[in-house]
Amino acid sequence: MLNNGHHAEAEPGSEAGDKTGNSACCSPEKRKRVVRVWCDGCYDMVHYGHSNQLRQAHAMGDYLIVGVHTDEEIAKHKGPPVFTQEERYKMVRAIKWVDEIVEGAPYVTTLETLDKYNCDFCVHGDDITLTVDGKDTYAEVKNSGRYRECKRTQGVSTTDLVGRMLLMTKTHHSNIDKNSDYQQHTDNFGKGPKGHSPWTGVSQFLQTSQKIIQFASGKEPQPGDTIIYVAGAFDLFHIGHVDFLENVYKQSDKPYVIVGLHFDQEVNRYKGKNYPIMNVHERTLSVLACRYVSEVVIGAPYAATTDLLDHFKVDLVCHGKTEVIFDKDNSDPYAEPKRRGIFRVIDSGNELTTDAIVERIIKNRLLFEARNQKKEAKEMAVFQALKKREEEKMKEQQRGLVNEEQEN
């Protein structure tokens, strides 16, 4: 069970950040004014790596503004996005550390953009983002000293997620060993002609208690809250999930939404194929990052049992308009909440499903593979240039030391 904060708007002085800059945890100097932080990106196929970047950026200031690029800009510099710009705008808005988004932000980050939105500095991960002609998109803000770096989340990338969908293997599930098919994918998918980029390469995600604590704020339900329970896979956490959870959140004036996440093997039982695409540890962080979610139960039972409902003092159980698949014993998993009269079907108004996302990827497989190869080739060229520059710098320093010794 993981607490994930409470309502969408943070209380003054709360962990989510006091928007007036008067949080008691801030230094006297910081309390004088609000520090405004800028992030930007494609945010295509938003995953917990993106959320972690925004969490770190928000922690560097008081107010986080996120610029999201248009489909046209992404297609020009990287290749076709999986999600439309409208879908990507809404996904970023749903991340609980984001205070404001700017639609159609320029692909190259300039001082003009930072000044336009009164931002003190820009934050980006410790990878590199390049334009279509191979130039660093953050060069101008770096040179002006208005650039900060945060750590990239190891073990997750859009490249890896796309590969899982295309391979249709189960090797990413939480208790299955990697096999030769998956290893071949990690060696070859998106690999440029000159080897792996350190920024695009596939690596294994390792869950830690510290990472969970960072994503979960730990607030308990308050008197008068309506405890709402939902359960499912929430695989490849996407805009369909966001629309559903937003509508669940709107069922009460003071909602406390608990999401029960099923273990990988349970999801595979009722979804089949190689689902879930993300294992339970990855899905946990993805859901915790959503501003409409208060708490997560990792490995929730498939059925909403009497024990579960009583333990969490659940007032309402919600399910989307998707088909309810019966339990292993052919029983209705929502029989008890229906008996209590607390079951409600929620129409998200969004037909997007995880299956539909996978279909988008498979349909455009060659385009996405070409995009990743092109991206990695550009990154490798920059990486090799940086490496060569560092080697030359070290040689110069060594020559200086030798000359100094000879003079003495």
UniProtKB/TrEMBL annotation:
Keywords: Lipid biosynthesis, Lipid metabolism, Nucleotidyltransferase, Phospholipid biosynthesis, Phospholipid metabolism, Transferase. It holds the Pfam family CTP_transf_like. InterPro entries: CCT, Cyt_trans-like, Ect1/PCYT2, Rossmann-like_a/b/a_fold. Pathway: Phospholipid metabolism; phosphatidylethanolamine biosynthesis; phosphatidylethanolamine from ethanolamine: step 2/3; Lipid metabolism. Its EC number is 2.7.7.14. Residues 1-10 have a biased composition (Basic and acidic residues). Residues 38-162, 230-321 form the Cytidyltransferase-like domain. The keyword Lipid biosynthesis applies. Belongs to the cytidylyltransferase family. This is ethanolamine-phosphate cytidylyltransferase. It comes from Huso huso. The lineage of its organism: Eukaryota, Metazoa, Chordata, Craniata, Vertebrata.
